[in-house]
Amino acid sequence: MAQQKQQLAPVAPNRVAENKAKGSADADSVREYLETQGSLDMLRFITCGSVDDGKSTLIGRMLYEAQMVFDDQVAALEADSKKSGTQGGDIDFALLVDGLAAEREQGITIDVAYRFFNTDRRKFIVADTPGHEQYTRNMVTGASTADVAVILLDASQGVLTQTRRHSFIASLLGIRHVVLAVNKMDLVDFDEATFTRICGEYEAFAEPLNFTSITPIPLSALQGDNVIQRSERTGWYSGPTLLGFLETVVVREDIINTPMRMPIQWVNRPNANFRGYAGTLAAGQVAPGDDVRVLPSGHIAKVEQVLLADQVLPRAVAQQAVTVVLDREVDVSRGDLLVQADEPCEVSDQFDVSIVWMSDEPCFVGRSYWLMLGANRVNATLTDIKFKYNINTLEELSSRTMELNDVGRASINLDKSLPFEAFATNPQLGSFVLIDRYTHATVGAGMLNFALRRSQNVHRQALAIDRSSRAKLNGHKGKVLWFTGLSGSGKSTIADATEQELHSKGIRTYVLDGDNVRHGLNKDLGFTETDRIENIRRVAEVAKLMVDAGLVVLTAFISPFRSERDMARALFDEGDFVEIFVDVPLSVAEERDPKGLYRKARQGELPNFTGIDSAYEPPTEAEVRLPSHELEVSESVALVLKNVDLL
Are residues 167 and 78 in the same domain? Predict the structure, then answer.
């Protein structure tokens, strides 16, 4: 059967024209909207303060009233509020931000929560940071990229310790604009006198801090007063609403009209005919024909091209990610810095720094860490902790250690010179983190204040007689034989016997024994963890000089901490450091107890004694292991010499 064709009614020509016109208008509207949104600048801000001051509620209320929450999210929020909320079944705006199960169960913020939203005037990224002191490290993470800090406090509680702590850290991290959000004004009946008293107390505390502006705003985040709309219940207040302030505050410094700085993230080498250097401009601008200097090497070249993907640019400005092509082959690596040739920045390996300590393990003078500055990772040692701050009074307290959440000033030494700018000048080139070399955990965040002058005044002197010349004269290489183990394990006995054997063979030697060194070089040091670290640092430096002189150095120290033994190893060339683990059980060492030290430690007369109330971290990759309770001394010596190449 033939199928009957369905006839469609023709569309009138004028209707077609209307639809095309409407579609064109809609497309123009969308395009105009996208262009407008694309031209808006971005403001990053954090909310911080003490526990239960209402940080998450404030952000949730702001998102809700700014209509940045979808209908299905509102429905889910209403359901979650009945299940997990803290408002008796009413909407709990904090749940929009507190996403972790543990946060909802406890009604607190634990991790940093980031939210994006925008208005017709600005785009925003807000970081909701936790209030508990134990999560101060998380607050530091959120504040590190913020332009404005919204510091909340409970109007019924006033200025608390965490208010001060977070304000101080915000100042330290270069945030210059602060909103003092006096929240929960509904709990004090929107009393003007209470608001004025709190503002006066806070401004007196914050006077020494480096804030450009402090803007107090009375709020009720829960009820929406002065968040987006001005509240009728604060008729005595004539300042901005919170959103009004955030939309209008001017925070961007002119980083374009400053000397060019471009950290190299990647050497772009797709084929043999192209070599470019990719990175994001941290300051200034760059164009073809500009002379640039490569730091730390100091080589100068001219910019040939500036590329954005496959597009050739006439110029690039700060915060643009581009690839720069130079007019000649120079040595440029990841981590180097391209700078304006006639206005370079400093290069140094010693700094005065500000540090926020973020680890449960304390920080000690002399301990070694990895320092990450941009794309560079170098070995770093804290050479001095100048002081740490009393957060309540900003008093500078003398200290040799830093504990979790401490903030202080220190001196730091690197094993490689790096180009930098002070954090106050350029946060991108002046901020770093410290990494534990074993756990790879971030243990500290810091800011470079300035290079220490001694690093500029002290230079290595070139000498005509070098190490190889001394080795040739001696007839053998210089090395360090690093004996480590518990007290009573036999380190000194085996080291002494090994030296006698080497001496009989014409090898030039010297023994650095723990007890002997503490009678002279290290007699000012005790047995705290800090002093033990410094003890090993000094011995390692002396051993390095002796090895350079061509001697075979035998050290006999407990050296209980793996970090310091690795620090000592790092001072020497490959193969010049031989770690010898004199390995005996604690019970055997304590039974020997040749000096009666274990007995005194058990009686509480020797605090911080290794093996009793101070840890010993055994080597994991020692070149030689000597179970001295199973070997004769001569057998131990033979085993050492078997593993030492002096030719």
Answer: yes
